[in-house]
Input
Amino acid sequence: MKALHFGAGNIGRGFIGLLLSKAGYEVVFSDVNEALVQALQEHKGYEVMIADESEQRIKVEGVSAIDGRNPVAVAEEVASADLITTAVGVTTLKHIAPGIAAGIKLRMERGGSPLHIIACENAIGSSTQLKEQVMALLSAKEQETAAALVAFPDSAVDRIVPLQHHGNPLDVTVEPFYEWVIDRREMFPGTKEINGAHYVDDLIPYIERKLFTVNTGHCSTAYAGYRKGYSTILEAAEDEEVIDLVNGALQETGSMLVGAYGFKEEEHKAYIRNIMERFRNPRLSDDIVRVGRSPIRKLSPEDRLVRPALKAWKQGGDIRHLARVMALALKFDYAGDAEAMKLQDLIAEKGVRQAFAEISGLSTEHELTQSVMEAYEK
Ligand SMILES: NC(=O)C1=CN([C@@H]2O[C@H](COP(=O)(O)OP(=O)(O)OC[C@H]3O[C@@H](n4cnc5c(N)ncnc54)[C@H](O)[C@@H]3O)[C@@H](O)[C@H]2O)C=CC1
Ligand SMILES: O=P(O)(O)OC[C@H]1O[C@](O)(CO)[C@@H](O)[C@@H]1O
Output
């Protein structure tokens, strides 16, 4: 069984590549980073270090890699893979869609077997987004055949894998916790499940709980920590003021999630505590600017701040802490982040209210916009 994984980065090597390899797949990475591809081709493996007292080192062996800029190689691998996964960033999916579409055409010509393509990005419905981008590149007739041959189950992935600083650039340190939840409804009946992944019949409660707790909490820690001059998540996550803000934001998303999906309140509170503890892992050095990266994406309508805040507001819930986090996100002006710079340019050009409205999809007069502006001024 061969799995083609797009994106040999932190989550690609440290989570999905590792899990697929342990589940019995021969893993082929596709990446556009030449040095990474060459190193994988040369070493055919790497080590994953678990950041807990066990200090376990897990060898991943027998992997290979192709240059994602080579369209022929990509199409060939897509045509012959038994499973495809991605971890390239949700905004990069559009760049891998042409190679996947070309590979699906080849697969159809050759009468290939059914295929699942699972995007493992931090976003709601990322496989569905990829499907739309791929299908748009096929003719109406091809789309019909492809619909019976290729499925795109949505998924939620949870494991913190920071930037790596090892002598061997392929090795990767990860937190011990991991969870990969896949939407079973989108799979072809009778498909063998991936060992180590968890399957559910309705992904939305899972992805929202994960995104609006782990990722809302993480970026809240990052934006508050950045404002206070910290450089790591650990430093920020130990600061009482930051803890209060993050906890407040997570109580707000938590009330919304409990109300919307019927999670048990006490269990959800324990879930929040556990996640805030994960941010304080002393064996993991995670940069604030990595976790806060791409603030325009993180302030977009369907992402980890605006969507839960709007849902909470519609339920009549409190959103004051979330509004403060959004205001802090608007102040994230890290020069090494292209989106942060674009955001600051937009604020300078149009004013903060208009800039926030354009990014969040909310009107300038919306009550939520008003709360964010008040927090921004403070
Ligand atoms: N790092 C983490 O802890 C987690 C990350 N994620 C998600 O996984 C995705 C990847 O994140 P990271 O691994 O942290 O980022 P990363 O930057 O370490 O890895 C992304 C990889 O994709 C490659 N790439 C870019 N364009 C490509 C293309 N056209 N074809 C093939 N490869 C391409 C890059 O060269 C890079 O190696 C993101 O959507 C992120 O939100 C999800 C859960 C955890
Ligand atoms: O990868 P993104 O969406 O930029 O966000 C960073 C987030 O992803 C993670 O890497 C893993 O969920 C978290 O560490 C962090 O919340």
